[in-house]
Amino acid sequence: MSAVEISAKDVKALRERIGAGMMDCKKALTEAGGEIEQAIEILRVRQGKKVQDLGERIATEGTVQAYVHAGAKVGVLIEVDCNTDFVATNERFVGFARDIAMQIAATPTVAYVSREDVPAEQRDAEARIYEQEAADKPENVREKVVSGKLDSWLQTIVLLEQEMHHPKFEGKTVQQLRDELTATTGENVVIRRFTRFAVGQ
Predict the structure, then answer these.
(1) 12-28 pLDDT per residue, tens
(2) Which residues, in sequence order, are CB contacts of 65 under 8 Å at separation 6+?
(3) CATH fold of 61-112+158-198, please?
(4) pLDDT (tens digit, 9 = 90+) per residue, 164-189?
(5) Pairing state between β 61-68 and 74-82
């Protein structure tokens, strides 16, 4: 029996419902044969109280925060959403949005919130470059080299995979901080979009 093909769309849908990490969601979906309800059950058993099913609760409340770097040459606008206005005005939630805006300001390569947002044609173009670079490698390692380079490239342009620059976060990624906030608030915390402005760019 062939393994069920898990789409990025399914992983994203599960993540938005339960707030667990991307790889955890993918593993649970694979284990559940692509069944979302079963995957939720697997994740809840595995991660205990850390995750809860947010069901079809859509993140329709939230905050827009701005950060302008000293010298006023770089600025960021970010929208982070949640389920209730009570959480939207919560100090920790607003602080999270500001911290992420500061991270974006300090990271000029970041262009997308998640891997699912990266256009397929851009990813394919990048993969073709790595395939050419790996052409002289033995065939059995070529795929691994391309996959590794693609992974490293995605980590530089995807916000959720960024390691926070500020030492107070102890090397946690944006995804980890988002998951922690989801677990604490019990709400669907979604980084909806952001724009980075830099003078002359």
Answers:
(1) 888 777 667 778 888 88
(2) 77, 78, 80, 94, 97, 98, 101
(3) Tetrahydropterin Synthase; Chain A (3.30.479)
(4) 999 999 999 999 999 999 888 888 89
(5) antiparallel
